[in-house]
Amino acid sequence: MDYFFSDKISALQPSAIREILKAASDPGVISLAAGNPAPEAFPRAAIAAITAEILERDPVSALQYGISEGYEPLRLAVEAMLKQRYGIGRGFDQVLITSGAQQGIDLATKVLCNEGDVVLCENPSFIGALNTFRSYNVRLRGVDMEEDGLDLGQLEEALRTEKNARFLYLIANFNNPTGRCTSLEKRRAIYALARRRGILILEDNPYGDLRFAGEDIPSLKSFDEDGLVIYAGSFSKIIAPGLRVGFACLPAEIASKMTVAKQGADVHTGALAQMICERFLAGTDLDEHFRRLRDIYRRKSGLMLEAMGASFPPAVTWTKPEGGLFLWCSLPPAADMTAFCRSAAAAGVAVVPGSAFLTQPEDYCRSFRLNFSTPPDESIIRGIELLAGLLR
Ligand SMILES: Cc1ncc(COP(=O)(O)O)c(C=O)c1O
Predict the structure, then answer these.
(1) Residue 11: is its pLDDT beyond 90?
(2) Is the whole-model pTM more than 0.85?
(3) What is the pairing mode between strands 139-146 and 149-150?
(4) Most buried in the list 80, 244, 303, 341, measured by CB within 10 Å?
(5) For residue 224, what pLDDT is reported?
(6) CATH 3.90.1150.10: does it fit domain 14-42+288-391?
């Protein structure tokens, strides 16, 4: 049988990158390629107790259909959390519960973009979001990342020339893949530019609570007095990704369109999972919980950075993130990064080739992404040892 596939999905071809990533699932290979939270960070006992209690006390709500906007007590809890902790949310905003931040990104694209429209993105950026944009046949216009966030000159130029740009997608806290943070000055400048040009911002913030060094920086959504920012948040990195619960805080007018789109996608996010999140928020000292998560990631990133510092040759450079799950390592200019990642996989350690995160994956890239949250300590040490051997 010859199967027919839509143009939009045919554009998402498996590539050399996938081949390298396949190696990561080989049990004999150490994977520094994942993007998963540390398994030891899951609040397993709390989730077990909460789940048992829900099924005992309120099984029908957990097992029955719910409304697409989300389980009301969770929406209210998220609304309160966003307002009190982060100054997010104005009278014109609404909270929508999504199946992960990924679904917020998908629904926003679905309701805002026609085929051929343009989405502006940090370059490099999260591959899951880039592929979502591509699946709607939108064109990606990458804006290069500097140490402290987007290159503002390039952003201005893109905003001036791209007449069909629908929104700017960014990960201001601990960008996936670079681990970089956008400075407060740049956040303000980006917001002001977007306002002047009348373009929306899709602010994806799954890692904001995982800051293990430096000072918190207000989100762009916290400046939003104009209904410009769609904020996508998630419980994946602060509770557990298998629950598939995220949230969006956005102007009600856009939220109502996204709700209609969500009805067609999955009707609603799993009710039991939403109830678990709601009870977890109600019964947990979040400051204490975040402190525990930050301790885990501070220690693991420190272990990786220390091993790299002790063994990588001086011509290789890397970011030193203050939070999140990743760091971005760059080979010397003109190096063949793809060949390096292939030999790393053959030597028993998988990393993600940086080109996977580019808006134009065929562009030259000399960097790769390393993840420190998923592997156990001994794999971090051994993985870096293997990479150092190859680099030398
Ligand atoms: C930047 C970014 N946004 C969104 C997501 C999707 O997360 P969720 O599990 O909330 O859908 C990820 C997952 O790794 C991510 O790195």
Answers:
(1) no
(2) yes
(3) antiparallel
(4) 341
(5) 98
(6) yes
